Amino acid sequence: MQKVSVLLLTSNVGSMFEEGDEMIEAWLNTITSVVEKYKPRIVCIHCQEVGGKNFEISMPSLEKFIEKFLTLKVFEDFDRGRIHLDSDSHDSALFTALGKLCMFHKSLPIIHNWDFADKCYKVVDDVQVFFKDFQKSTCLLRIKYPKELFPDKRFSRKGYLHSRYLIGPKQLDLVNIHLFHDASNFIAKDEPSYYSSKRLEALKYVIDKLEKDNPDINSSPVFMFGDFNFRLNTHDVIEYLCGGTKEQHGENDKGEKRIEYMRTFDQQKLLHLEIKKFDYYDMGRFTIQAAREFRKFDQEYSKFIGDLHELPIRFPPSYPYSEDLSRGNQFMGTRCPAWCDRIFGSPCGMKLIKDSPVEPVYNSLSPDGCVGDHKPVFLAFTMRIEDEGPHNGSASGATLDELNQAFQQVHKTIDSELKSSRK
What we know:
- The protein is of the alpha+beta class and 423 residues long.
- The chain has helices spanning 14-19, 21-38, 55-70, 185-188, 194-213, 234-242, 291-294, 347-354, 400-422, and strands spanning 2-12, 42-48, 78-85, 99-105, 111-115, 120-124, 127-130, 141-144, 159-167, 170-178, 222-227, 246-251, 257-262, 269-274, 277-280, 341-345, 361-364, 377-385.
- The strands form 3 sheets. The protein has a 7-stranded mixed β-sheet.
- Strand 9 (159-167) and strand 10 (170-178) form a beta hairpin.
- It is globular and about 75 Å long.
């Protein structure tokens, strides 16, 4: 058996592209550091908000970003990879602004990538980039949520990407997901939260669609990682922080609603709340020393405990941090801090993690640096696969044709059973 170290990482990079080259360099340095530390043989990075809000303007920066990523010294022994960055910004019904950067070390056995159009595995024997021709890649599935799932039925750059790999005989399904954000703190603090309910609807849609389109998906490890935008129960957090205080209602300089929560005995302002302002007088309370204090308010994930599993969180909330390069360890004060960026495994995926011969690590990166308003979150673990040597034949000794015939027969059998069940 061969031990293969794996690094899964999710990073919302929207503000990184908006802030320019200095922040991009900081992000690349962060990737270099984590790869150097854990020495993975498989690296899969899921990005959200690729290109920032002004995608067309960011195009030149994106091209340079891809070139710099691929020429990082830590990847000089990675001879295979697939880079996908959604560039269909002209089509709001399709555009997700999602990206996948998967790199494979030369020591790995033969690798296959599932072709969703031809319904078969194809050998990965080089590094390919799909950017301007993103839509031509059939080895990755891009899904935009139906319009009725979006808050107020207004399209935004949200959806998911699905890819499937065979590492030797080990099949891995990797899903990059981006769920809806909280557009207003006032709506977010309603009980129940409108935004939370829309996120849960979209996540259920993803899980149901994955199972419907891939009936065999639960027989192998699945990892879903991205910006889930999971928020703390804002209503309960405000009650916890400001219970018994006096509310002062007013307007800001723009004539927009404002609430200030004042402590009665000394008139200390504890919280200043606006549509896009959540300014607690002691934001340091949300840092790692007190992170456990607020975990009880992280409740959205609990609806999917049977489908999605996660290692214990022992790092600070991953969002929202200052985009000022000199204040990267401070919260921005726009939203209630939350663990938006997460890595989940299916039951098979979690078993693979727990069987890791090396203790898995689940953490965030760049605690004191600035890489945007989201901190990248990663999972490092080791899996065992049959030892076939680097690039030495197909999985389990089978030819590629034999592998694909077997998978096609499985799909035919499942399709037949589904048709019979509907009669």
